[in-house]
Amino acid sequence: MDVATAQSDASLLVKQSLAAKLREEIIEGHLAPGQRIIEGHWARKFGVAQTSVREAINLLINEGFATKASGRSARVTSYSEGDIAQIYELRGALEGLAARLTTQRQPDLEPLETTLKDLRKATKSGDVRQLIEADLQFHLRLCELSGNRFLYAQIHTVLVPLFAFVAMRVVQSHQTAQAWESDLDRHKRIIELIREGDAFAAEFAVRGAMQQFAQRAYEIWQRKEAKS
Q1: Which of 16, 30, 103, 142 could be disulfide-bonded to 25 (CB atoms 3.0-4.6 Å)?
Q2: How many domains is the chain built from?
């Protein structure tokens, strides 16, 4: 390994380490939704260059934990209650279409089966963060299997920051993984309907599931607001 490669690897590790620290600050609520992430403050706190913090923030933006408008400071991802309602309306339309297209294509459903197993494992072990990650992957894989790359690109843009926000709120409201157990059957039913080849039933099931998931998001929101 030459010197340049070693330096690049070391720089990447620093960025990843800083991103992990900032991610914990966000998830644990020390950085609130909508709050500015001030590069200088965190550079001083962690004893690193401000450039390194900026690069770490860029990683968080890619993960959905932060957003940044042109010419402005990065902020922790934030959604209003109305935003959440509209996002789930959009999810119902896009993911319902994805279920219909996937059913018509009949691809190998192993990616969905695998993420469902991960969901069950995380629920059983009580690992909320892993559960949320597995849930995200299930819905991304569903849209990927649709074969429509434009649909996938759109849903990826919607889901990644949404699930990052959900992770923050779930941890801060102390919700347990067991509260998500009823959703396992809904995910399983989606796979079954796709495999059975009933495209419109699969689409209807996904749209119905989104209504249930939206209610879960609303409950999480209300629980957090009650604690504030």
Answers
A1: 30
A2: 2
Each residue of 124-182: pLDDT tens digit? 999 999 999 999 999 999 999 999 999 999 999 999 999 999 888 888 888 888 878 88
Co-location of 98 and 178 in the same domain: yes
Cα separation, 19 vs 13, in Å, equals: 10
What lies within 8 Å, CB to CB, of 213 at 6+ separation is 88, 91, 183
Structural domain span for residue 91: 81-227
List the one residue out of 140, 214, 223 whose CA is nearest residue 175.
223
The length of the chain, given as a count of residues: 228
Beta strands in 65-160 (DSSP E): 66-67, 75-76
> 67 — phi, psi (to 5°)?
-135, 160
Report the predicted TM-score, pTM, of the whole model to 2 decimal places. Answer: 0.85
168: exposed, middle or buried (C-beta count within 10 Å: 0-12, 13-18, 19+)?
A: buried
